[in-house]
Amino acid sequence: MKAVVKYAQGRGNIELREVPAPRVGDDEVQIRVEAVGICGSDLHIYTWDIGIPTQVPFIIGHEFSGVIAEVGRNVTGLQKGDRVTAENSRTVCGRCRYCMTGSYNLCRERKATGYAFDGAYAEYCVVPQERVHLLPDNVDFITAALSDPSACVYHAVQELTTVNAGDVVLITGAGAMGLFSVQYVKANGGVVIITGLAKDKKRLKLAKELGADFIVDVSNDNLSEVVNEITGGGGVDIVLECSGAEAAAQESLEMLRRQGKYTQIGIFGRPIEFDLDKVLYGEIRLIGSFSQKFTAWREAIKLFSQGKIRARPLVTDILPLERWEEGFQRCFSGEAVKVVFEPQKSDLAKRGNL
Question: Which residue of 52, 59, 99, 232 has the smallest Cβ count within 10 Å?
Fold first, then answer.
């Protein structure tokens, strides 16, 4: 089968290869991958700048959906032909306090599909049965491939932060995480201010279409003036930092009211300077949100099915797997919001928003 492989450490060192299809274990299912998205962490695998604890070579990719092609002999509740998606937490210890309380995303022994185990930038992928989620009939493969980022945001916004009706929420970053955050905040009745740069004009326009109340180009507009006008000088109730940019983290902290909540969703990839005295004096609640867990996946898929959260507007490019490098470069340049590959199709022309 064809697969996109990280074959050596360092920047780049990725290529399309022919590799054997993965064999299914007794407690696993083999999935024929119909759609797989580029995640921000995949871009970090390309640049190799966040100290990923793994060994090369490996197949990249963990945001995917497809059809079960084969089931292991111990698998129950799933069968060949089922339409599915799957969580990226491939293995956990099952014994620690986090696993025992359902927060296995925090297990110190957690290893993920797409770097510790071969991933889904391939025609086939193998995952444990307990990480598989069945898809409702009205959720297509492209939408389902974005279950992972939507579940990440559900975990951050719904399970960890809690947004109440009327809360003024500042979202920094208009990528996929920021755009899903817009939808979840609006679903809770919050008021959304979302920021981006001059190059994010199309993304900010999309944010507006998805429900954002105010869009701010911080390259040209004064964010502090905008926030003061909206909040009467009191500051926003919540910050959802989705950009992973140091400047955004620092500036957004200044926008928070006292006793506000700051949630970190984006990955910086390095230590940053952050004024904890402001956190202390303002009694700010700092929240970190990492990955997601079963409850978030279940609800994210349900919300797709109900049409309350939309993924398709975020998908700007649908490409065959052979054009993986083009997809990556469009992400790096900011031209694309979300790129999805279709490994089963090799003769597709580039399409947008289908």
Answer: 232
Give kind and range of the element (H or E) at residue 17: strand 14-18
User: Which pairing describes strands 63-71 and 28-37: parallel, antiparallel, or unpaired?
Assistant: antiparallel
Half-sphere exposure of 165 (CA within 13 A, CB side): 1
How far is 16 from 122, CA to CA, in rounded Å?
Answer: 9
Q: Which CATH class is domain 152-288?
A: alpha beta
> What pLDDT does 352 receive?
42
pLDDT at site 347: 54
Q: Which amino acid is at 303?
A: L
> Which residue shows structure tokens 């966040």?
50
Based on the number of CB atoms within 10 Å of its own CB, is 283 exposed (0-12), middle (13-18) or buried (19 or more)?
Answer: exposed
- For the chain, residues classed under CATH 3.90.180.10 are 2-146+311-342
Within 13 Å of residue 282, how many CA atoms lie on the same side as its CB? 22
Q: Does domain 2-146+311-342 have CATH number 3.30.428.10?
A: no
What angle in degrees, to the nearest 10, is found between the helix axes of 201-209 and 176-187? Answer: 20
Residues carrying CATH 3.40.50.720, the chain? 152-288
Beta pairing partners, 67: 32, 83
- Cβ-contact 284, 98 below 8 angstroms: no
- In order, the DSSP letters of 141-179 are HHHHHTHHHHHHHHIIIIIII---TT-EEEEE--SHHHH
Name the residue among 42, 28, 218 with its Cα closest to residue 115: 42
> Is the alpha carbon torsion for 219, 225, 227, 230 positive or negative?
negative
pLDDT computed for residue 346 by the predictor:
77
Neighbours of 252 (CB within 10 A): 24
pLDDT, residue 180, reads 99
> What whole-number distance in Å separates Cα of residue 50 and Cα of residue 52?
6
What six digits make up the tokens of 241? 């930092």
DSSP 55: -
